[in-house]
Each structure stands twice: as structure tokens, then as C-alpha cells.
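Known limitations

Files may contain more than one protein. Parsers should not assume a single record per file. Below, a two-record file is shown to illustrate correct handling: read the sequence, read the C-alpha cell line, then continue until end of file.
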Amino acid sequence: MMKLNRKAFLLASACLLSINTQAQQLTPQQNQALLRAEQGAIVKLDSFLTEKTAQIPYHKYPTPGPQYIISDDPEYIRVPEAIALKESVVPGAVRFYLYNVNGVKEPQQMDRKIIAMIKNTGKAPMRIKMLKYVTQKPSTNYFKLGKEGLAAFLAAQPSEDIRTLKPGEAVPIDEKLEQYVVKYDELVHGFYEFLVDQPAEITVLQTDLKTSGKDALKRITNVLPPKTKSGAGRGLYGVSNYHVNNTTVIDTKNGTSALIVADGATDPWIVGREGTTGQMAKLAGNYGVMYNIELKWKSTDGKGLALITWNSRSADNQWCSGMAAAMKVSGGKFNEGIIQLPKDQLVTKAAPEAVLIQVFKPSANGGEEQTIKLTYSPPGASCLPTPLIFVPVDLKP
């Protein structure tokens, strides 16, 4: 479904976003269509969606969070056995995003295992407590894995189980990865957050179906080089969470506006360090980074505010033909909660398709400020950015 240069296309697309403005106004029929739509539904808004929507100015700053590791470079593991990532972490919280594909074509396509191992490199027993755990069966449906995996991560709760490792001992981070058969072109997608109380080493490796992760870790020594033709990046990053708030209050009387994050321009990619080379690492896409967004808004003209998104990069190339996301949104017409976007089908394709996230109602005193809260992370397998569009809507029948 997605081939070698998929990520390169996705990320090049992100930097093309225009910041020009253009007047946008719903027709009465479009207004009613948004009001009738279910949360997460696709609504067709002909001649409305544009990349030239006025942008919402904002402040963004990192907030305390876990050490962050991502394994997505090389995205496609082209050799039968190899290490795709090796990183060391210190005691504390760790977020780990696994995004690797069995790309073996020579001497022929073959079934593989892709396993993430964690080794206690300290001098005392190490305890591991899982805070968030998302495992999915490997698939060529990257959009499905990305959307459902992110929604599950946002909803995940800490486990009460604690595993203990002796010094030098290694175990799979996700034991289910030992059981999965990864066929050619299938993505292994896992999202984890956990606590360790000793220094540890995390290794992602590809091996045959008969070899355990422990044995593969002892046997395999070749580490694939980073900065290949596909993949967002790999390494250890110090930024895992951002807080975003607008610097100018959104007012429905001022018309449609857009919040744009994870575009690589106004919101630069995070940087870290790649453990096997010691070189600076850049995570093109900020995948796995959590954006906690708080936006102030008011309605001095009595209108409500619809929040929508759309696949703004669909015209770039074949890799941007669909977009699927998930986020947590505060209450409005629909209850607060996590919503997959779109909800009732896999992806949204292109304009005029918009996806309804929420409709916010004005306060009794329209001039009173309210706060919209969102938890957003760049959706894996989708082109970036995924604009968040705030559209004034007339709530009167």
C-alpha cells in the first residue's frame, strides 16, 4: 500500500503550506450539514476548504515528559536480519514508538519477526511498569494502524503489573511481538510508555520466525545505518510533550481560522541524538509527540464554533491520497472524549471532504471567554500537517 518513499513525500508536503488568507463563509446548506452531522463524520463543503485559511497565532513550549524513542529509520528493513535501533535510557519514564516494516525482497520475500527488546544495563534488578501499552497485529493497512493505535494510546491506562529484570537480562517490551508473523510490506506498529528504575538499552531487531528475541539479541550485531530513503527518523529525544495556547482570542465574528502544528516550518521538528552514531537526529513529522492544546474563544455575534479537519495535502502525490487521525477533544455538542477521524470509514481523501470533530456552543453571555482543550499527535501514515479548522456556525434553526 505504501512503498519506499512514502515518508519522504509526506514530510516534504508538510513544508508547502501557504500562510496567506482568504475569506471563507459557509453557505446555509453547508451550515446545516455540519449541524446535522455526527461526530467524526465526513461532511462535503464544496469550495470552502483551502490552505489559505487565516492562521491562529500561538505560543508553544515543551512540558515535562518521558524520554522519547522512535524507531522509524529505516522504516523498511530490507535485510533478513538486522538491528534497526539501539538506544540507551536512564531511570525514569520512557515513551517508545515502534514503526518498522518487513521490507525483505532479496533473495525473495520472506516472513519475519520484528521485536523490541529491553535490557537491564544497570547493576541492580530493574523494575518495569507499563503506563501505556498499545499492540496491534502487523498489517499493510498503515492508515488503520496509525489511527487506531493513536486512539488506543490516548485511552490507555497504567498496568498494575511490574516485571523485574536481573542485571544483564533482556526481555521483549511487548511479548506479543514474539508471536506475530510479519509478512512482506507489513507494518509493525506499537506505542508504549513505561517506567524503569535502572539504566536500560532498547533494541529493535528483525529476525526469522524460529529465533526468540533473546537469542536474536545475542546473535545479531549489524546495525542498519540511519538517514535512509524512508522513515521519519530514529533516536532518543528530550521533548515528548508540548503545550500550545493561542495568543489572540478566537472570536466567531472574525470568521474561519486554522491552527497549524507539525508543519516543520512554524512548528519545527524536534531534534535529539542517534545512539549508534552519536549524530544529531531530527524527527521529521514529530510523530509520537503529544500536543496539549488550550484555545481561548468567544462569540460576540452569537454563533457557535465548529472544529473540522481535512486532508490538505491530497493533491501533492499518491502517498497523500488519504488521511486518518485521532484526538481527544473537550465537550461541546458532543461529549468530551477520544474520536477517530473519520469515525465511520478508514480515511478522508480530499476536498470537499471535511471531518467534523466537535461543535462548541457560545456562552450565555457571548462575550465571555471559553476554553477548548485538545490532545493531538501527528497521525502516523498520514501527510502533514493536519490542519484544525475553526468555523463559525449559526446554531439557530
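...continuing to the second record:
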Amino acid sequence: MNASTAYEQVSPAVPSWLNKGDNAWQMTASTLVALQSMPGLVILYASIVKKKWAVNSAFMALYAFAAVLICWVLLGYRMAFGDELLPFWGKGAPALGQKYLLTRARVPESTHTLEDGTRETVEPWYPMASLVYFQFTFAAITLILLAGSVLGRMNIKAWMAFVPLWLIFSYTVGAFSLWGGGFLYHWGVIDYSGGYVIHLSSGIAGLTAAYWVGPRLKSDRERFPPNNVLLMLAGAGLLWMGWSGFNGGAPYAANIDASIAVLNTNVCAATSLLVWTSLDVVYFGKPSVIGAVQGMMTGLVCITPGAGLVQSWAAIVMGILSGSIPWVSMMILHKKSALLQKVDDTLGVFHTHAVAGLLGGLLTGLLAEPELCDLILPVNTRGAFYGGSGGVQFLKQVVAALFVIGWNVVSTTIILLFIRLFIPLRMPEEQLAIGDDAVHGEEAYALWGDGEKYDPTRHGRNTLYGEETAQSPYVNGARGVTINL
């Protein structure tokens, strides 16, 4: 027996069930997903909005990240992944005890197929602490994505109350039902890494919240240019690169399914970006960097529910559809829909997350490949494209989507109406007119002298040598919505 073997047998820091490689990858994936929110979406939100809302938008994301973590370890994690209370909800309890966090991670019963064709039950080879933090990063980014629908007018105090309430009464329900051992999980619905739990939920809840909070000022809706396009790209880049942890960490192991998930994620995102950009060129005559980021986002969202379950040629097909169908819903149907015109979804979260997430969930029901499903899913599963019981799987995906949509509309509505009894959901008109300086007493950029007032004759934003410069159609609203991510 060598020294290292003896150490592993006697040291409590290296129990016999711990796989250091799996644990290292899970913590790495957790960090990648956390970086998508903090600083990824903080930077993206701060730069993609009008200058006067940069601080407020960044702060909403920053606050949500911190508030969700504390609520998660106090109550939320075990409501989403603990013992069953109801078929769609777990028993809430703290996830803070040392004995709990240092024990081997528990997940709903899962099996995979061995080379000889037999199936065995598998569990993660790392402690609960790794799993609790990994799942927190998903909960946090869901709230931050939802925030994109209400930027530029939601009362910050109402947002501070909304975050913990929505986490507890909406997010945990979807997470337990689909991931934590709830009725949709046991029914065999597929949501590999959050197409429904995260993206469909945030898109539908965001649209609902935008309806109840009300619109931005008319001047903000008509003209809402990003204050820093290059910084916006930095935030978008963190999102894209972080998505390898988002989908690569879903198998709870550094296994071959994680590898295919990472490859498919990037293939789909790249395809979607190219398709969206091509449609912009064909329809509007010029490419847009904001449009390219939108295409990237819809591709990442669409592949998420099936990243480790579809073949790579299918990831290209999903990228083609995610770069075109949400483009049509945003650029064409948005203009023709009275409801979408009425509801002020600031960053178009409905299109980029609800539409793309629903599309991905349905396409997974069509394209999930049986052998890949056997690597990770608890029951024999296949998409409709592969015959057999695939048609039933597609119908399950439809039913699950309807449940997620219905629950988020109802729960978000009740939460906001409750908050409205005590706190106005919308900022006062004077704060809406001024922005960050009135809401926080802070401004994002010192572009002119301290205390100097904005003078359009001296500080014109869109002039070059005295002549107005052309703007992207995404900026001036000609494409149906202002900025959408």
C-alpha cells in the first residue's frame, strides 16, 4: 500500500465514494454558470440599456444573484431537490448543515446502460455542497433573465421583494417537477439542462411581470439605444463561453455525455447566430451585431433541453430553426400582435427565452437519440424521429410546456398583486424621467464635467462633425422591438 492510498483510506477529506475529477468538473461548471450572471449579465444589462438606466439594470442583476443564494441555502434548494411534499414541490429545509453538505450528493433515481446492455443506478461521486451550489447558479440566472423584461421602470423595492417570493413559489415548483423527482420527471419529460425550468419559465414570467408593472416612458420605448455596444459583446461572450458549464455540468459527472453536450451547445449557437445574421441581411440589407447576439442567445437556449441527448447533426438543425423561428416571432409577428405591442418586454425575453426554450423542448421530443438517452435518462426514451414510443414523448413535452406556462403566469401574477398591496410596482414618474441619478444617486459614466447638465448642442450622441449618423434598425425600433436579449 503506497502513501497516497493509505491517505485516501483514512482521511475524511477523501472518502471512498469521492471522484476528484467529477467533483472538480462540477465546481468548474458551477463557476462557469455563475460567471454568466456575475459579471456576464450584469455587464450585458448595464451596457445594452439606455445610459440613464445602466446602474439600475446592473444592480437588479447583482441583487438577484446575492438574494437567490441566501434564499437557496435557507429554503429553496430542498424545495426543488429535497423530499417530496407534493407531486410538484419538495419539503423546504435549510441546506446548511455540515453533515448534510459533506455527505454524498443525492439525486432522483437515475440509471444508465452498460456495455453489456444492463442498466445500473448511478449517483454523483461528490458531496452535496457541490450540487447545492451548482443548482443555485441556475436559480440565480433564471431570476436575472426574468429581470430583462422589466428593466427601465420597475420599482427597485418591489424587485427586492419579488426575487425571493418568485424563487420560492415559482422556480422551485418547475425545478422539482422536472428535475427533483416530481411528477413530470417520473412521467419521463425531458429537460436536459433547463429549456423549460429556466428559459420557458423566465420568458413567460417576464412577459407576465412586464404586463403588471406597466410600460416604460413613451420616450424610452421609442428610443432605447445601448450605451456601449462593445461592452455588451463582452457580456454576451461570457454568456456563450459559460454555457459550456451550463450544459456540460448537467450529467453531474465529467463523462462522455458532458462532452457531447458541450460540443452540441457551441455548434447550435454558432449555427443560430449565422442564420439570424443572414436573415437580417436579406430582410434589412445589413447585418447587426445586436442581431447576431440575439441569434447566439436563441441557439444557446434552444439546445439546452436536449444538449446531451441529440446528435450533432441535429444540433445544426436546431440551430437553423432557433435562428429563424424566434427571428420571425420577434421581427414579424411582434408587430402584428396586439398583446405583444401592448406589453413592454424591455429586452424581448419572451422571444429569446420563452419561444426558443419551447422550441428546444419540442425539438428534443422529436430528435432525442435513443443511445444518448440511455447514457443519462432513468427510463428508455427516444424522440419521435426515431419511431417507437417517440410520438408519446413529443406529447409529454407539449404537456410539460403547458404546465410550466400556466404555473408561471398564475404564480407571477399572484406574487406581483400581493407586492402591489404594499409597494408600487412601477417607479414614480419623476424617477422614470431621470433614471439612475434619481433612483440610486449614481450615474454610470462621467462623460462631462462634474455637475454639468446634458446639453444636446454640445454633447450630441449621434452626431459626427455636425451631421447625424445612421442608427441600427434595432436601436430605433424599426424592427418591431428595441433591444432584445
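Parsers that stop after the first record will miss the second one. For reference, the second record is described as follows. The CA atoms of residues 53 and 152 lie 6 Å apart.
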